[in-house]
Amino acid sequence: MNKLIQGDLKESSHQELNLIQSMYPDQFQWIQEPIQSANLPQSSSFRLTLESSDSNGQEYTLQITFTISVDYPQLAHPNLAISSNHLTRVDQIQFNEDFKAWISSNSNDRPPIGESCLDILIDKVIDLSHNFTCLSDLNPKNLSCIQSQSVAQTLSLDHLDMAWSVFWMHHIMATGKRKNIISWARELNIRGWSKPGYPGVLIIDGPAKAIEEYSSRLKSLRWKAIQQRHLEYYSIPYNRNSSSELELHRKIKLDVNLEPGIDMAILEVETMSELLRQAKNSGLENLVLEILKIK
């Protein structure tokens, strides 16, 4: 590329960045500003913090991190990473994968390489953001009909019928399965921990009928290998006026140390040691070790 064309492209990119800054003055933040030197090509990066709405119309905040190489726009699109404390980790992964699938496709609305496109990319991210459900929609006041039925079916006059279970899988890798593991737990008022990778481990606790329904759905998916290593039914005293008393009897305790915005249904952990740390906090470490035949 000759220096004249290269200079024109740099000027065009610089003007586009100025335009984005003027459009989002309070939402724009430089991470690495472009170096204004023709002899020193340098990528630049910035972050936009925007408000959007989820599939239920609930507003939430998301961040888009742009990395613009010296090849933009002539030879490459900008790289984008999308994140939000209001989405589960699995949803954030799916969000980024959906965007990558679109930018790599032959879709008519995808901007061609060679054209300035930051505004188009921002609009696409906002469009995709409507496909997800933010965590603030998932509080107990918004229980689904299925979830409410699960609780009602396990409620006797003076106690709740509960269950907890441990699953071992050859692996948990597919994004779709990881998403199902979390979304089904939200739906059925189930809590627990999931360790993706090799091997996969899932530990769940909730109303007995909900655990049975969840387990049935889980087993219906295609797995290289899956074993339900443990299923135990138990009951807890029911006091309509004391949720703290109910919590005392749950097998899996809520982690009070979780950062705000972390999903309280199924918590994904990266390692077996982190899974065992969570189990220890609920007094289940030795039992989980025995069930998984680790010792």
From TrEMBL:
One protein family per Pfam: RWD
What is the protein's name according to its record?
RWD domain-containing protein
Every copy of the RWD domain together lies at 15-132
